[in-house]
Amino acid sequence: RTSCSWALLVQGRPHDVVIEGLATDGGLYVPKRGFPNMEAREWLRLVDMSYPERALVLLEKCIHPSDVSALDLRTMIFKAYGSNFSSEAVAPVKHLDRNQYVQELFHGPTASFKDLALQLMPQLFAHCLPQMCNYLVLVATSGDTGSAVLDGFGGLGAGADRTGVLVFFPEEGVSETQKLQMTGHEDGNARAVGVRSDFDFCQRSVKRMFGESGLTGHLAVEYGTVLSTANSINWARLLPQVVHFLHELVQDGVITFGEPVDVCIPSGNFGNAMSAVYAKQMGVPIRKVICASNHNRVLADFFATGEYDLRGRPLTPSRSPAIDILKSSNLERFVHHVSDGDGRLVGELFTHVPLLT
After folding, report:
1. pLDDT for 49-92, tens place per residue?
2. Whose CA is closest to 149, among 131, 136, 130, 134?
3. Which of 105, 116, 190, 351 could be a cystine partner for 165, CB 3.0 to 4.6 Å?
4. Treating both helix axes as pointing N-terminal to C-terminal, what angle do 199-211 and 213-223 enclose, rounded to 10 degrees?
């Protein structure tokens, strides 16, 4: 990457951002002007709304009607968060102990929290598809994303015939249930492939495919096909996850409006935690975003020490394979956020990170 090409991190037409997933220089897209900040009276309006109604209000502020009309966005959202979720609340919050609550993110069709994004993202993707191209969506998964991607893209109507999905997962790094969900998927345009390595290898390989001009050129010339991705490196995957941080504790009378809460999020690729950071930027009263790790703890060490060094750190499989990740893609977005949008700094820092893997 060069410092000038890293400008793509904060630029790009909205349709391109959704379809390309990864910027052409290998960087990640973020909103050029940040998130809109909502006033207290606007948040108060959301308190008694349903989950899809809240999602519509928030996402209308982030998606321009010239890209997705208000009517189309409403149709997509109410399809994404309807009878396919086993809870009417979509992401209900339950009392755990004293002042501790747990948000249930497993009520979607694949029982993965990724359903909160991946029931909507494929619809946005199909809406943005140009007329004359086919797309191959490449996905690396540590377990949860794969089945949610397959289900989300499998439910597409228009655009499904021009969209293929290829999911790569670590053969020995996912649960048996997750493996059966992925390999048992029968959609004609989607396949799951087990890889004899870990998630980081799968993710690194997907990114490398985007940079292989011979591969991308061959697909374009021979098959009229362009590569895209549905991992949280795709902005359209990350954006819908902001919504579920508008929890129901005010509606249930547990806290008063504006009272701050801390959110503790198990993190591997740092997508859901980054969504919480963006929710806070919009005005959700989040005090702390606590990044929970297992014994691989690369992110926990980074926040404790300020150092992000992957040298000599082998991945240790655990009972929580979704966070068995060493190289967290969305950390780039976090560094961009805390550096006040210094894309040049982000480019310089992350140019050297691949050398440490």
Report:
1. 999 999 999 999 999 898 899 999 999 999 999 999 999 999 99
2. 136
3. 190
4. 70
Helix (H, G, I), strand (E, B) or coil at 63: coil
The helix (run of H) or strand (run of E) holding residue 190 is strand 190-195
Tokens 């960087």, located at residue: 27
The residues, any chain, with a CB within 8 Å of residue 300's CB and separated by 6 or more, are: 291, 292, 293
* pLDDT band, very low/low/confident/very high, at 160 (cuts 50, 70, 90): confident
Give the residue from 301, 330, 297 showing the smallest Cα distance to 314.
Answer: 297
> Three-state DSSP class for 293?
coil
Q: Which residues contact 261 (CB under 8 A, 6 or more apart)?
A: 247, 249, 255, 285, 286, 287
pLDDT of residue 133: 86
| Token pair of 68 as six digits | 């997705």
What is the token pair recorded at 339?
Answer: 């550096």
Query: How crowded is the C-beta side of 340, counted as CA atoms within 13 Å?
Result: 0
Q: At what angle do helices 121-128 and 144-154 cross, to 10 degrees?
A: 50
> Can you tell me whether residue 118 is helix, strand or coil?
helix
Give the pLDDT confidence of 113-139 residue by residue, as tens digits.
999 999 999 999 999 888 888 999 999
What gap in Å lies between CA 224 and CA 83, rounded to an integer? 36
Going 340 to 350 to 170 to 187, the CA torsion angle's sign is positive
Residue 55 confidence (pLDDT): 96
Q: How far apart are CA 224 and CA 34, in angstroms?
A: 35
Q: Which amino acid is at 266?
A: P
User: In this predicted structure, which of 21-25, 131-135, 257-261 has the lowest mean pLDDT?
Assistant: 21-25
CA–CA separation, 32 and 311 (whole Å): 33
